[in-house]
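User: Predict the complex.
Assistant: Input components as received:
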Amino acid sequence: MSGAVVEVVPRKRPRSRKAKPSTAEPAQAPAASGDRPARLPYLLDLYPAESPAQTRLAPFFDGLREGRFLTTRCRKDGRVLWPPRIVCPTCHTSDLEWVDLPQTGRIYAFSAILAGAPSGLEGELPRVVGLVELDGSPLRIFGRIQGVEWAACRIGMRVRIEPFELPDGRAYYAFRVVS
Amino acid sequence: MSGSREVAVVGGGLTKFGVRGVTWAELAQEAGEVLFRSVPNLRAADVDSLFVGAAEPERFAFQSHVAPLVAEQMGLAPHRIVQRNELACASGQSAIRSAYAAIRAGLSDVAVAVGVEKMNLPDMAEANSAMACVLDRPWDAAHGLTAPPFFAMVAQRHMLEHGTTEEQLAAVSEKNHRFANANPVAQFYEKRFDREKLLRLPMVAPPLRLGDCSSMTDGAGAVVLAAEERVREFTDVPAWIRGSGQYADFHNLANMASLTDWTGLTRASREAFRSAGIGPGDVDLAELHDCFSISEVIEYEAIGFCGPGEGGQFAADGRSGLGGDVVVNPRGGLLGCGHPLGATGIAQAVEVSDQFAHRVDPARQVPDPEWAMVHNLSGSANVHSLMVYERGG
Ligand SMILES: [Zn+2]
């Protein structure tokens, strides 16, 4: 990773559908058999904890709710860090700032999960995933790729970040192919 | 107390690898049975230290603090050092490395390194979650990343950058499955896979098919390591540990410099060769971490058995088989034997010991091997662990 400064992109308007607060109570397991609970047991839940009571990276998730894709930059050496951090691994300072990452990029490598899904994703196969080179950034970020069948997916396809809301109100993100 | 005495693996044994109707603790008992059968002069009282390689007993068996559990199951009472080693897919080698360091430092004289993993669960989605959390869980695995799609992207880039083909990947898998057909403990001992059959198997994560991927496997094993003064009590053919190297850098995929140029492995193998005083051309037998067919291809390149980008052709030309430049994975590899995480590194060391002593099926016996290299990667190839062995006699 180089220390190149990431281009700051303009803020998007907040999405009209406001995500529920991230401190929402875990939903009860539904009575109907075969349905997934809104949240897996904590130690099977792959998604990150995001409330301010649980993490100092809560602004990242708040940013997703506002249509922003943020990470941290070290104020001392200017490095843009991924994933976001609270201490720079080079300078060992907590003097970091939140910056916007580019929300568009190109697929650098991809595959598809056709079998072997972790708990909670069994019903979501096939799932296209890949590494995306963000425009104007040295960062290559991994994520789910929406909006394309795996057989039609190609290296170099353009994608953009797409925040989404988990059933329990937490925010997360994927990539979506744009034409 | 000597600060630099020599250390050898003096023998060991393995349980049957596969989908086993046994519990985690029962696998540890089986490891004790095969260990004392394989090293007949070993008495429990000889063992002063115990190192247990186990990647995820909390997730696969809902059991922590497994070092004393293993001691009880195997009938051992270690009184110098007792610990568990966790390094995901390299946990078994990690246990051996710790035993080696302890003996070399004079803190242990005779140590046992054990590997146990029980990966087949009633709900395999839970086992897949266990594999997912080896990676950067909140930032990579939350998108669905597990090992197959990661190594699939590695294969895709290697194909793009170097022209590697599905047929070349199948050549790796065919070789290792053929060796596994001569190894009774292998998960696929009785399953035949030729190249044509491998290329018809279903995709798991394109471009990787089922035969390109190692399995979820239950298995265990144990080896004995001894200080030079004690070695002759146990064997006439010690496998002397002459060198080692290890390297760790990134964890999140964004911080991996290259999917296809594994610089961490190049660094670790250079250190292993330097400390042993040999080079790639001296290695007769290499146990390389073929968790996926593409892994073995890149490992040839990064260690220096062939040039960059040449790994696929190296396999297709038979240069990693019997009679080739270096015999890679005569045990059957992870592809043929299965990959019970903590037990894999132990199984590789057992293979080196058995190959040096000419104790294996002639169909996979390397002719008079003198130098062996063992490699494990773990996680997303972000850690590489290597050891170099020389045959004693
Ligand atoms: Zn810094």
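Residues 371 and 390 of chain B are 5 Å apart (CA to CA).
Let me know if you want any component modeled separately.
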